[in-house]
Write a structure and sequence with these properties.
By secondary structure, the chain is of the alpha/beta class. The chain has a single domain (about 5-170), classed as Rossmann fold (3-Layer(aba) Sandwich), CATH 3.40.50.300. Helix content is about 55%, strand content about 15%. A five-stranded parallel sheet has the order 2-3-1-4-5, sandwiched between helices. α1 crosses α8 (about 160-175) and α3 (about 45-50) crosses α4 (about 55-70). The chain is globular and about 45 Å long.
């Protein structure tokens, strides 16, 4: 039974790469945000995070992922960028599968994130400084839990990047 959790900084390519890798490997794919959305009444993830706060949202994500794991065999699951902030979630993933950390350079990430507005986890008065601190903290956590680290680089072709990701998974885990 192969269970892969794709983690990384917000907008690092987790969802796209997980979906494409699952298709190439013939595995089930899910996004943790979609699992969380099933328990919300028409709100977006960003709205729920703002309304509930960080801790309540983290509990909601942990419950959704735990429920999914309990009813599924092999899969690839992409997690939200803040999964690193929940030790319970990180421990659950570590105990039940392989954590695949998809990295990209810090300087490439912030412009992508800001295309969708300033997220609630960044300080509006110090966007760059707060992102740098967040990136450093989350990167350290993801690296400490990761079973495999894949540097996505500045990918231009998402399908080619997915083929490289799948090749790394096959080499490391014989899937």
């Amino acid at each position: 039974m192969a269970r892969f959790y794709f983690v990384g900084i917000k907008h690092s390519g987790k969802t796209t790469q997980a979906r494409l890798a699952a298709a190439l490997l013939g595995m089930e794919y899910r996004d943790a945000d979609d699992l969380v959305l099933q328990g919300l009444s028409g709100e977006t993830i960003r709205e729920a995070y703002r309304r509930e706060g960080k801790e309540a949202f983290a509990r909601r994500e942990l419950e959704a992922v735990s429920s999914f794991i309990g009813s599924h065999g092999s899969f690839i699951l992409s997690l939200g960028g803040g999964a690193s902030d929940s030790k319970a979630l990180m421990d659950l993933m570590k105990e039940s599968g392989k954590i695949i950390y998809l990295t990209r350079k810090e300087e490439a990430m912030l412009p992508v994130i800001l295309r969708h507005g300033i997220p609630p986890f960044l300080d509006e008065n110090d966007i760059e400084g707060s992102f740098h601190a967040l990136y450093e903290r989350r990167d350290a956590i993801y690296r400490s839990y990761a079973d495999l680290i894949i540097d996505l680089g500045p990918y231009g072709d998402k399908e080619e990047t997915a083929r490289r990701t799948v090749a790394a998974l096959k080499e490391e885990y014989d899937v």
